[in-house]
Every structure is written in C-alpha cells, then in structure tokens.
Amino acid sequence: MPNYDTTIFRGSRDSCNKDLKITFLYSYSTEFDKFPTAKEKTNGNGFNIEPSFAISISEGFEKGRLFIPGNKYYAFITLFDKAVDLISENLYTLYPNINKVDFEIDSKALERFQTEKALAVAGITAMPSVWYDDMSKPYPAVKLNSTLGTVNIPLEDAIQIREMFKRFDPICYSASMLHFFASIRLGNNG
User: Fold this and answer.
1) Mapping DSSP to helix (H, G, I), strand (E, B) and coil, where does residue 125 land?
2) Which of 75, 89, 135, 179 is most deeply packed, by most CB within 10 A?
C-alpha cells in the first residue's frame, strides 16, 4: 500500500518554531489490500470510498511528534481550535509575568484551567504549556498529548496552524488524490 505525504504547514523564519512541520499522509490501497481505498459495491452499483488519511505534527527532527488518524481528525481540529481560544483568552492569568525575559506558567492557574476547562476528546488532551527555542527563550504554548505522541506548539504558531486547518479540507484533498491515482491506473491524464 503506497503512502503519499504532503507538507501542509512548515515553520518559517517568522515562526517561533522554525522546525515545526505538519504532514498530510494519504494511503492509496488497491483492491488486493485488506482495506482498499475504493471498493466496488457488491451489487455492482457504485463504489464505497474510505478516507485513507492522517496527519502528523512534528516539532522537528528527533523531537516531539503527534499522529492523528483520519477517524480522529475532526475531533482533534475542534479540540485544537478550542485550546487556542482558551489559552489566548486566559493568557495573562496563565502567564502573569509574560512580559519578563524569563517567564513561567502559573501552576495554580494551570491546575484551575485543567479542572474547569477540561480539554480532552478522542484520547487527545490539550493544555497550556511553555515552549523554549534553541536560545532558551520561553513562549506560551499548546501541548497536545495522546497515545500516538506528544507535541508542544508555540501559541503564535498554533494560531497560524488553526487558520490553515480552517481552510484545509482533508476529504476534498483525499478525493483529488484518489482522482489522481485513478487517472494513472486508467492511463490517462484527466
């Protein structure tokens, strides 16, 4: 089963984490695989199409990584959006000394945040955190954790990523990938 990876977000020189990368993973399975991407219905009247996608969020080479399978994608996007909003709204409560060179998260505010604003869905949790760059400069962050990995994303980058996710449609992208593979299989370019 071939896998096709598309980078849909990459940190830039304007990002807090320049190594941050989000990859859309698409798997195209044939009729010979156990779970094919497209399978003809038993009555011969059409096809069933499986999403066959996931995303991977990486903090950089040999750093934190989080894998989100397609069946948890929309739950994750909802959680991520809510976490960015809540951390932004409570920024000065969570990080009371944010204007200082070396700030920390307020442990009592964090504890209150975790109990009152539970941010967990589909086995994924989101919580406020602090992310440090290579020069040990701290940034407010969103920490995402599941059984499939952990990443810590600076809040400034998370806001950009949230906007990207609002515009990215994995079902449409998957359908275009399926069209691409079908045209290759049929030997035409359209």
Assistant:
1) strand
2) 75
For 111-133, the pLDDT digits (tens) are 888 888 878 999 999 999 999 99
Tokens coding 82:
């809510």
User: Which amino acid makes up residue 56?
Assistant: S
Tokens representing 11 are 């940190």
For 66, other C-beta atoms within 10 Å of its C-beta total: 21
- Residue-level length of the chain: 190
What's the CA gap between 27 and 49, in Å, rounded? Answer: 12
Structure tokens of 63?
Answer: 């750093």
Q: Which CATH number fits domain 3-168: 2.110.10, 1.10.287, 3.30.2450, 3.10.450?
A: 3.30.2450
Does residue 88 contact residue 159 with C-beta atoms inside 8 Å? yes
Per-residue pLDDT of 50-103, as tens digits, reads 778 899 999 999 999 999 999 999 999 999 999 999 999 999 999 999 988 888
Burial class (CB in 10 A: 0-12, 13-18, 19+), 158: buried
Do 54 and 72 contact (CB within 8 A), yes or no? no
Q: pTM for this structure?
A: 0.85
